[in-house]
Design goal:
Layout lengths: L8 H7 L1 H21 L2 E8 L6 E6 H4 L3 H17 L3 H27 L3 H8 L6 E7 L1 H22 L15 H14 L5 H9 L8 H17 L1
Antiparallel strand pairs: 1-2, 1-3
Helix pairs in contact: 2-4, 2-7, 4-5, 5-7, 8-9
């Protein structure tokens, strides 16, 4: 008999493919949001009537303060995507979708409505006597943030559509106790057995080569024979 799990290795790799794709999309989305947070979204020109006009560059981390934390949240979702399965993976996909929406909102507002002078003055923390005379919007960082949000949405869809039995890490990373419990559950529900599940069943003290109905019939025959004696 070959080593445990050797027959399941290609199948496990194919099963984890949706999660790997989602992880790649999350990484790209996080990188896009982080890069956008380091770029200048709005340039505000102000005057206080006392000296030369002042020019203030407002980066994404200031204009859309949640951009950096949202990028970190996408990175955390990568680890969660490999650590959980089933309903928990659905929760992760919903959370990723919420992060995508939160990242897209300020970018859309800036591209559609432009920069607001009062908002620029507040974020730039200008003195009360200063007045914003001009606001210049840089569309590229907002577009980059939208790209990151779209990548996060695609990752959320990939996670949501990942079949339950294909989610998470390969079964070879489960603890022996978890594999034994899974083997017992499969035996009780008559799920098809693979080479990995055969070994897990033997670890659980089950004989995977004996059908439960046959075992019951054998016990009945022994009991009947004993009664006839």
């Amino acid at each position: 008999m070959s080593a445990p799990g050797s027959a399941d290795a290609p199948r496990s790799g194919a099963g984890r493919r949706p999660t790997v794709v989602a992880a790649g999309l999350l990484a790209l989305g996080a990188a896009a949001l982080w890069g956008s947070s380091r770029m200048t979204w709005v340039r505000a020109e102000s005057s206080d009537g006392l000296g030369a006009d002042r020019v203030t560059d407002l980066e994404g981390a200031k204009w859309a303060a949640a951009t950096t934390p949202l990028a970190l949240a996408l990175l955390a979702a990568i680890a969660a995507a490999f650590a959980v399965r089933g309903r928990a993976l659905r929760v992760v996909s919903i959370a990723v979708g919420a992060v995508a929406v939160a990242a897209a909102v300020p970018a859309v507002q800036l591209l559609v409505g432009g920069g607001d002078a009062d908002t620029a003055a507040r974020i730039a923390e200008l003195p009360g006597r200063a007045t914003v005379t001009a606001v210049t919007v840089s569309p590229l960082p907002a577009v980059l943030a939208l790209l990151g949000a779209c990548l996060a949405i695609a990752a959320a869809v990939a996670l949501w559509r990942t079949p339950r039995e294909q989610a998470g890490l390969s079964a070879k990373y489960d603890s022996p106790a978890a594999r034994r419990d899974a083997a017992v559950r499969r035996a009780e529900t008559d799920e098809p057995m693979t080479e990995r599940t055969l070994w897990d069943a033997m670890d659980a003290g089950e004989d995977p080569t004996v059908d439960r109905d046959d075992e019951g019939n054998d016990d009945g025959d022994v009991s009947d024979s004993g009664t006839r004696r």
